[in-house]
Structure prediction request, 334 residues.
Amino acid sequence: SNKFRSIGEKIRKAVDLAVLQSKNNNIKFVYFNTGKDFNFNDLELAIEKLNPRLLVGPLLRENLIKIKPVINKFKIPVFSFTNDSSLSEKGVWVLGFSPFDQINKIIDYAIKCKKEKIGFISIDNDYGRKIYNKVENSEIKNLIKNKIFISTQIFKNKENLRKKISIFLNYNESNNKDLLSNEEYDFIILIGDRNFILGLAPILTYYDVDLLKTELFTTSVLNDKTLLKEHSLINAKFPFISETNINEFNKLWELVWSKSETDHLMRLGYYISKISIWVASQSTKFENQLENGRNKFSILGNKFIFRANGNVLRPVNIYKINKSGKIKKINSCL
Prediction:
């Protein structure tokens, strides 16, 4: 409910689609609203009354943290939509694509492609600092040439923002009169939300950063309609979970929900629901199923491997934005 109502409706439609396809009439999903400041005791009473086989959700990390005492009390397995992998543990599986997992993929790419001059640009907040700490404590720590954290105040002042980026890029207008590209870095990691990326990318281009020579990486936030159409982000790259048979899913969706547009969250909701239905229909507990090696699932060809420690493995690839604003999987270095 509240500001997350539209997201909740997407997930519910995905669950309903999975249930309609199921031939098991004994499986039932009961909804509990965590989109507002829900009462902890109400959730506990609902679980005592219903005795569910597992919990699907919640979406937000703060709500997962809030319900953990209940989870631990009743020993109920949880399949959560959140992308904070630090909350994964025995009995709690986090299925969203964690920013920290994405950074690991970016680091692996930088190592594989032998990058030597790495720059780091981030919004100045706790999220950006944590991401940088992960980079700084990785194998590429000695390859980081420079870093900057941009405060909200500086970001809103375009003149100061341009000046800060100019210094970071060691830009000298007199040296760039012959239209040479700026090659201060061969690899730049850009961390922030959609508005931050949208504000920074054109400035990098203005100061002659050529994304055919300097690889620009950010997280899956880049897979956004507005950012995909931004000219200065052509050839920018990001890690993303590979999905198969999206068109087949769309056809299934249209059979029930007409021609409404689908997105990654709807598909994830469907995949988790299908897995949940199978898990709940088994006579043994999920932890016992994992011990017996029944931890691999494929929904429309999309693979999931559940580990006993709460980790969920899915295939991840690197994508780039092409000139038509579409994303394309890449298999080689620049």
Observations:
- Residues 216 and 236 are 5 Å apart (CA to CA).
- Residues 5-21 form the longest helix (17 residues).
- The first strand starts at residue 55 and ends at 56.
- The mean pLDDT is 91.
